[in-house]
């Protein structure tokens, strides 16, 4: 392919709205163009790289025994009513009506559609296990689309669904997908770390996310360098620390006008935030409960939701707080509270603490939680922070940031129950199929590669997913001898199956060098009159500072060897 005949334009300046390096580079290198918030066009180079990622995904899915199919993106909302997810998805799902006023959705994911399909197609244990996948556009009305392809309204996902006869068999399908994911990200040149994850609205029992470590990542990750435990912060647990507090005097009320937040309290009582017990009132599926965490910690709503087995937990509104505590927001406390009270495990044995008094402008001091309040249960409810201890080995945990590129779930029978997806076992009895689902954000993965692999000059593509493997800079496009060398080298490389992009523009060499670095193909070859006079073409890796002068007749073989070496290094 020749630059002079392509729709590619690199930009000197960063696009204004881009906050992270990969977004800036994808736009500047001419890979994507924005239509509007969260909607992007893949330009020819971007599409080539995307298709290479998709090809790797496809090869590994096929290798793991999954069959490709393609389901409609437009789905009847009635399916989502049957699974009970129509309400749970809320405004995150695009909804529209067809001409018969039937409510439809643009699929954010396909558990409902695939389970309905498989319920109709499979009826015997002989047809199981069955794993299907598709690579398809998904739609999500994200609250805050940002970071280019990272969080888009329309994006391409690879979604796989497995159906099995038993939980044990489903575990094997899960493991096969987990292993395939490890291979996919390795082949894409990405260091993606599997971490334990929350199952969110999709439901199910167990899941892992594949995270690309990056400071710009939207997810917090908890990591134990000692034993390898790693989890999304939403899910992460921590070891219980031993109760430390001693006995304390009897409780006493203290007037605290307008002192509602922990910061206000710290200023008022001039002591550390950990001396306070924060009492948070929640509605769990509409029923009020209280959750307690130390004043210096945040409550993890995912943990509370899991503990209560609730579909939805939300902070109670002002009137509810007033009704159940008898006080305005900011003065709730566990003493005398007639509600189920769940306390973070670190509050076990807590004494001489300060809490709200369930009375306007009043707090209570000298609270001994076990003595003065009725705690329903002590559980791990706080968000894990730096310095907390590993739940597996007790060593200190570290906090990192990551980009979620893939997610594997054990779903159990959540969806097969809703859609009555049953099969006849070898004794002729009807049983529910056991399901798993597995997603990769193909477009997000592409950008995560750029986020992980770039320098100040531009992108550094891993050889497996580069838009082109070689960029061949034709420095003197009017010089017939140089053109002839470039032409024949292009053909030789193509004959070896190496894709090459020729920069044949009438531009200064400096411009071409800069653009080659920005676009970031792994191998740069320079054909120019000066080099040829010295004996050949310059061959350089994007990652190295110096080039080799290679005689023209050896160039294709030398480049072929470099490609093989780069490929072998990726698959190691
Ligand atoms: P997130 O927590 O980032 O919103 P999710 O957990 O809702 O993602 P899943 O339902 O697990 O996403 O979807 C599978 C994969 O699809 C994710 O691992 C991610 O790579 C990708 N993905 C999800 N939402 C988006 C989006 N808005 N834009 C681009 N990719 C996305
Ligand atoms: Mg996810």
CATH architecture of the largest domain: 2-Layer Sandwich
What compounds sit in this structure?
adenosine-5'-triphosphate, magnesium ion
Task: Output the CATH homologous superfamily of the largest domain.
Answer: Bira Bifunctional Protein, Domain 2
Count of extended strands: 31
- Total helical elements: 16
Q: Tell me the fraction of residues in β-strands, as a range.
A: 25-35%
CATH class of the largest domain: Alpha Beta
User: What structural category arises from helix and sheet content?
Assistant: alpha+beta
The major beta sheet can be summarized as: 9 strands, mixed
Can you tell me the number of structural domains? 3
CATH fold title of the largest domain: BirA Bifunctional Protein, domain 2
Rg, alpha carbons: 29 Å
- End-to-end Cα distance, whole Å, is 31 Å
Average pLDDT, all residues: 95
Shape: globular
The poorly predicted ranges are none
* Fraction of residues in helix: 25-40%
Distinctive features:
572 residues; alpha+beta; BirA Bifunctional Protein, domain 2; YbaK protein; 9-stranded mixed beta sheet; 5-stranded mixed beta sheet; 16 helices; globular; binds adenosine-5'-triphosphate; binds magnesium ion
Short synopsis of the structure:
The protein is built from 16 helices and 31 strands. By secondary structure, the protein is an alpha+beta fold.
């Amino acid at each position: 392919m020749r630059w002079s005949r392509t729709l590619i334009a690199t930009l000197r300046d960063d696009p204004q709205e881009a906050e992270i390096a990969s977004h800036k580079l994808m736009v500047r290198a001419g890979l994507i163009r924005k239509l509007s918030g969260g909607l992007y066009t893949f330009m020819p180079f971007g599409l080539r790289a995307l298709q290479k990622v998709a090809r790797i995904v496809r090869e590994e899915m096929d290798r793991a025994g999954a069959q490709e199919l393609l389901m409609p993106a437009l789905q009847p909302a009635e399916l989502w009513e049957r699974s009970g997810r129509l309400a749970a998805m809320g405004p995150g799902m695009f909804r529209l009506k067809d001409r018969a006023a039937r409510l439809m959705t643009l699929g954010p994911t396909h558990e409902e559609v695939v389970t309905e399909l498989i319920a109709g197609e499979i009826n015997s244990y002989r047809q199981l296990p069955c794993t299907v996948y598709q690579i398809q556009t998904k739609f999500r009305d994200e609250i805050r689309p940002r970071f280019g392809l990272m969080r888009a309204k329309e994006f391409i996902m690879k979604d796989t669904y497995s159906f099995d006869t038993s939980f044990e068999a489903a575990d094997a399908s899960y493991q096969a997908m987990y292993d395939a994911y490890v291979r996919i990200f390795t082949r894409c040149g990405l260091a993606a770390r599997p971490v334990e994850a929350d199952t969110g609205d999709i439901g199910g029992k167990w899941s892992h996310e594949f995270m690309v470590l990056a400071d710009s990542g939207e997810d917090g990750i908890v990591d134990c360098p000692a034993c390898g435990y790693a989890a999304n912060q939403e899910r992460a647990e921590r070891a219980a620390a031993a109760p430390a507090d001693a006995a304390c005097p009897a409780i006493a009320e203290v007037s605290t006008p307008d002192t509602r937040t922990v910061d206000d309290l710290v200023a008022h009582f001039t002591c550390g935030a950990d001396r306070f017990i924060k009492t948070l009132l929640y509605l769990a599926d509409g029923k009020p409960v209280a959750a307690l965490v130390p004043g210096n910690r945040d409550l993890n709503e995912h943990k509370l939701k899991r503990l209560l087995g609730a579909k939805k937990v939300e902070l109670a509104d002002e009137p509810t707080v007033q009704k159940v505590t008898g006080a305005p927001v900011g003065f709730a406390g566990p003493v005398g509270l007639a509600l189920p009270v769940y306390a973070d495990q670190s509050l076990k044995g807590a004494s001489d603490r300060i809490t709200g008094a369930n009375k306007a402008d009043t707090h209570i001091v000298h609270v001994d939680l076990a003595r003065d309040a009725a705690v329903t249960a002590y559980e791990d409810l706080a968000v894990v922070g730096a310095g907390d201890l590993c739940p597996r080995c007790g060593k200190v945990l570290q906090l990192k940031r990551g980009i979620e590129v893939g997610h594997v779930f054990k779903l159990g029978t959540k969806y097969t129950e809703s859609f009555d997806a049953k099969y006849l076992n070898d004794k002729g009895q009807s049983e529910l199929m056991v399901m798993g689902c597995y997603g990769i954000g193909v477009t997000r993965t592409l950008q995560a590669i750029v986020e992980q692999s770039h320098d100040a000059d531009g992108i550094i593509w891993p050889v497996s997913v580069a838009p082109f493997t070689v960029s061949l800079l034709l420095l003197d496009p009017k010089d017939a001898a140089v053109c002839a060398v470039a032409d024949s080298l292009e053909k030789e490389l193509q004959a070896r199956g190496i894709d090459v992009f020729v920069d044949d523009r009438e531009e200064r060499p400096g411009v071409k060098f800069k653009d080659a670095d920005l676009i970031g193909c792994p191998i740069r070859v320079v054909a120019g009159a000066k080099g040829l006079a010295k004996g050949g073409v310059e061959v350089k890796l994007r990652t190295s500072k110096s080039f080799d002068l290679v005689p023209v007749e050896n160039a294709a073989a030398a480049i072929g060897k470099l490609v093989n070496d780069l490929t072998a290094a990726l698959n190691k």
